[in-house]
Task: structure prediction
Amino acid sequence: MFALDRELLLWEAELPSLRGAARAHLAIRLAWHLRQRDPQRAAALAREAAPMLDMLPDTARRSAQARFMLVEGEARWLSGDLDGAGTLAGQAFTLFDALGDAAGRADARWLNAWIESDRGNSDACDAALTAGALDAREAGDALRADILDAAAALFAVFCDLRQALARWG
Result:
């Protein structure tokens, strides 16, 4: 879900030397990991990579399109456009679900959880985080599941400390 700064620096340094599908794959990865650190750069990478997506196999192309929806969705969420962000998160979820991409579904649910939190819908936020953690486990991604569980525990503490302690210990 999040890359270390040193990884991003290496990827940024590598990007100019790549062409074709290799460049598209790295641009997709960079855009995803820059989505909150530098939404403008992430959007620029998505725009650059969009024409190259036709070089990718259908599943990879559709997965990248969904990933770019989440990149834009997070930018909208960060700027306060909760409705626009929610629409993009829903569209990305639908596409990831059609692809059988459980990690992608988890990421769409992650964005949806933050949107619901900002709307004050703690039950919907918790449901999204819980379902996202299940998706992450289905994908075999223990770190992603742990991040979703940690966020759920954090939100639970703000809603009801006693209930959070009972659930999360």
Notes: The mean pLDDT is 93. The radius of gyration is 16 Å. DSSP finds nine helices and no strands in the chain. Residues 58-78 form the longest helix (21 residues).
